[in-house]
Design a protein that fits this description.
Layout: E1 14-20, H1 28-39, E2 43-47, H2 50-53, E3 62-66, E4 69-73, E5 78-82, E6 92-98, H3 104-118, E7 122-131, E8 141-145, H4 148-153, E9 157-158, H5 167-177, E10 182-190, H6 199-213, H7 222-236, H8 241-258, H9 265-279, E11 308-309, E12 318-319
Parallel strand pairs: 1-6, 1-7, 7-10, 8-9
Antiparallel strand pairs: 2-5, 3-4, 5-6, 8-10, 11-12
Helix pairs in contact: 1-6, 3-5, 6-7
Length: 341
C-alpha cells in the first residue's frame, strides 16, 4: 500500500518521467527532468526499492563519505513534487531514475499507484534517441501516444510502432491500459555526437513540454549551455572535408523535408512561445535553435553503434543511450513526426 504522508494536495498535477539508459541518448531526457527538479526545488517524497528492480552488477551502487562516515547510494527511481505558482498554477510530479533491470510490469504498476493516489491527470514520458540529424539544425522532438482521442485533442502522432521497446514504451502502454492519459516526447540526438551531455536536445524537450502542458518553464543557464555545446561541436568539426559533405547531405535532407512546415504551425507555435517568455521577462535569456553556417562534426564511425537501430515508423535510424547498449535496437516507440523545437 502506498502511503503519501506529508505530500500536499496537488493542483492539476502532471507526472513527468525520464529514465537513464537505453531510452536516453546523450542523457537529454533525464537531464530535462533534473533541470525541472532543480529550477523548481523539487522535494523527494518516495523512492522505489532498489532490490526489486535493479541488477547491481549492471547498475552498481556507489560509496561516498559524509563527514567521515561512509554511505552508500543505491541505483533507484525517485519521485519528487514541485509546486508551480503563477496565473495558472499547476503542480508536477517528477519521476527520475534508471531503466529497471527486471520486473518491469511491477515497476510500472508502482509508478501508476503513485499517479492514482496523487490524482495525476496526464503522464509525460521523455526519451532521446540517436538519429540521422545534423547538429546545425533545430533538434527534432516528436510527441506520440497510444490513445487516439488524445492524439486528436493534443495534436500528437498515434504510434504504430512494432518491435523491441524500452521502459518508456512499456510505461506508456501501462498508462493506456490503466486509463491514464500518457504522452511520450522523443528528441533526436545526432549519432556522431552522442556522448552526454547534450543541452541542445534537453532544451528542445523542455520547449516541447512547455507547449504540451501550457506552462512556462524557467531555462536557467540551459540556453547558454546549449549555445556553448554547439560552438564546441563546431570547433571539433573543422578538419574533415569528407565529414563536411556528410553533414551537408543531412542538412539538405532535413531542410527539404521541413519546407512545408516552415510557414505553418511551427511558426505559430514559435511566436506563442516567444510571447510567453517576453511576458515573463525571460526574452533576453531565450534561446531559439536556428540553423548556423554549416560546420563539420567529428567523423562518424563506419559501423553501427550498439544500441542504434530503427525503432521508427518511418525507418529512420535511432538508438539508445548513446553509451553502448548491449542490444541492437533503438528506444521504444520512436515517433515518425518531427517538430522544429
Amino acid at each position: 500500500m502506498i502511503e503519501l504522508e506529508g505530500v500536499p494536495e496537488l493542483v492539476d498535477p502532471v507526472m513527468v518521467a525520464a529514465f537513464e539508459g537505453w531510452n536516453d541518448a546523450g542523457d537529454a531526457a533525464s537531464t530535462a527532468v533534473a533541470h525541472l527538479d532543480k529550477e523548481w526545488k523539487g522535494e523527494v517524497f518516495a523512492a522505489l526499492d532498489a532490490e526489486d528492480y535493479y541488477d547491481f552488477q549492471v547498475n552498481r551502487p556507489t560509496v561516498w563519505l559524509d563527514g567521515g562516515v561512509r554511505k552508500i547510494t543505491w541505483p533507484t527511481t525517485r519521485l519528487s513534487v514541485v509546486r508551480v505558482g503563477g496565473d495558472k498554477p499547476r503542480d508536477l510530479v517528477l519521476v527520475r531514475g534508471i531503466e529497471p533491470s527486471m520486473r518491469w510490469r511491477s515497476f510500472c504498476n508502482e509508478i501508476l499507484g503513485f499517479a492514482h493516489e496523487l490524482g495525476v491527470e496526464l503522464v509525460v514520458i521523455m526519451g532521446a534517441l540517436l538519429g540521422d540529424t545534423p547538429h546545425t539544425r533545430p533538434v527534432p522532438v516528436s510527441g506520440v501516444t497510444s490513445d487516439p482521442d488524445l492524439a486528436r485533442t493534443m495534436d500528437l502522432e498515434e504510434t504504430k510502432y512494432e518491435g523491441p521497446t524500452g521502459i518508456v514504451g512499456i510505461l506508456q502502454e501501462a498508462c493506456t491500459h490503466a486509463g491514464v492519459p500518457a504522452v511520450s516526447l522523443w528528441a533526436a540526438v545526432p549519432h556522431y555526437v552522442s556522448q552526454p551531455p547534450n543541452p541542445k536536445a534537453t532544451l528542445a524537450l523542455l520547449n516541447r513540454l512547455e507547449d504540451l502542458i501550457d506552462l512556462r518553464i524557467p531555462l536557467g543557464e540551459l540556453a547558454e549551455d546549449a549555445r556553448a555545446w554547439q560552438v564546441g561541436v563546431d570547433q571539433l568539426a573543422a578538419e574533415d572535408s569528407e565529414v563536411a559533405e556528410y553533414v551537408q547531405s543531412l542538412e539538405e535532407a532535413r531542410d527539404t523535408a521541413e519546407l512545408p512546415e516552415a510557414s505553418g504551425e511551427a511558426i505559430a507555435r514559435e511566436f506563442e512561445r516567444y510571447l510567453r517568455r517576453r511576458d515573463g521577462g525571460e526574452g533576453a535569456a531565450y534561446l531559439r535553435d536556428t540553423p548556423s553556417d554549416r560546420t563539420r562534426p567529428p567523423k562518424p564511425k563506419p559501423t553501427q553503434r550498439p544500441g542504434q537501430a530503427a525503432e521508427s515508423d518511418n525507418g529512420t535510424n535511432d538508438g539508445g543511450d548513446g553509451t553502448g547498449s548491449s542490444e541492437d535496437s533503438g528506444p521504444s516507440d520512436t515517433p515518425s513526426d518531427t517538430s522544429d523545437d
